[in-house]
Amino acid sequence: MKALIPILFCMLPVAVRSDEPAVTAQELAHHLGIATWTSSFRLPGFDLGIQILHIKNGKVADAILGDGAFPTDREFTRVAIEASHTSGGTRFSLQTGGGPSLSVLCKASIPLDTIVPLPSNLAAGDYVLGGDIPDERLKQDLNQLPLTIKEIKEGVLLRVTTPKKN
Q1: 90 pLDDT above the threshold of 80
Q2: Are strands 76-86 and 69-71 parallel, antiparallel or unpaired?
Q3: Does residue 14 belong to any structural domain of this protein?
Q4: Alpha-carbon gap, residue 92 to 82, rounded angstroms
Q5: Buried b (16+ CB within 10 A) or exposed e, 91-107
Q6: Average pLDDT of the chain?
Q7: Model confidence at 8, in pLDDT bands (50, 70, 90)?
Q8: Minimal CA–CA distance to 127: which of 34, 25, 57, 39?
Q9: Does 89 fall in a domain?
């Protein structure tokens, strides 16, 4: 046993000096079958509307999560969305800094084969999160082209709205 301690002590610098990059949380989530998106908002007020919508054949089919104001106590906040397949369908979770967290199980198994990254700062609008994109050319340049729901066979859309002023 005493001979094993110097060997382990000598191996420690090799493990610490490894040039291999560490596995990121997003890479680990991908290997576990979890799709993740993160971004931030700079809010004109202190609440906004967030919806996650199911896309089918290029149209919004139904709402999966969120249906009204999503209050937050900060002018600048981060948002994280997670989606994973379960035996009962697709589970979606939404968390924001300073606001509530929501989770829902959608009975449909929504394809998440292609994940579209969110921009670092969100404004009011629609953002395709991912799904089944039949056009291979669009898959090659997901960071360059803004996708519309017309190009999605089945997938997920994030809709962000700000409260209407009276």
Answers
A1: yes
A2: unpaired
A3: no
A4: 6
A5: ebbbebeebeebeeebe
A6: 75
A7: very low
A8: 39
A9: yes
Q: Which residue has the tokens 């301690």?
A: 5
Residue 87's domain comprises 23-161
What's the pTM? 0.75
The DSSP secondary-structure symbol of 66 reads: -
82 beta partners: 36, 93
CA distance 126 to 161: 9
CA distance 73 to 69: 13
**HSE of 48, CA atoms in CB hemisphere, 13 A:** 29
Tens digit of pLDDT for each residue in 21-32? 677 766 676 667
Q: What's the total number of domains in the chain?
A: 1
Q: Tell me whether residue 117 is in a domain.
A: yes
Question: What is the distance between the alpha carbons of residues 73 and 130, in angstroms, rounded to a whole number?
Answer: 29
DSSP per-residue codes, 84-147? EEETTEEEEEEEETTS--EEEEESS----SEEPPPPSEE-SEEEEEEEE---HHHHHTTTTSPP
Q: Are 94 and 72 in contact (CB under 8 A)?
A: no
Residue 89 identity: G
